[in-house]
Amino acid sequence: KQEHKRSRRRAKRQALVDMMGGFCRLCLQPGPVAYFDFHHIEEKEIPLKQSTFDAPWSTLLAEADKCVLLCKCCHGQLHSKN
After folding, report:
1. What is the pLDDT of residues 13-58, one digit of tens each?
2. Rounded mean pLDDT, 51-76
3. How far apart are CA 44 and CA 3, in angstroms?
4. By CB neighbour count within 10 A (0-12 exposed, 13-18 middle, 19+ buried), where does 26 fall?
5. Among the four 27, 30, 63, 80, which has the fewest Cβ within 10 Å?
6. Euclidean distance between CA atoms 41 and 28, whole angstroms
7. How far is Cα 54 from Cα 70, in angstroms, rounded to an integer?
8. Number of H helices and number of E strands within the chain?
């Protein structure tokens, strides 16, 4: 049961990354799904992290609309400047 849940979470995350282009919006590098973070540009209701991918697809889509896709390196640099 746990593996099924993990698999479903990974599939949802992969789908969101694919929908958002599959590349970092700052450095334009493509990469595997684990390479990316969802950076909120609007106020977030839920964080888009592994445990929240159990949420309904409509909730995830609404939250993803408030984000840009960044690689972990660019995301870290962006937050270190703030």
Report:
1. 999 999 999 999 999 999 999 999 999 998 888 777 766 788 889 9
2. 91
3. 28
4. middle
5. 80
6. 18
7. 22
8. 3, 2
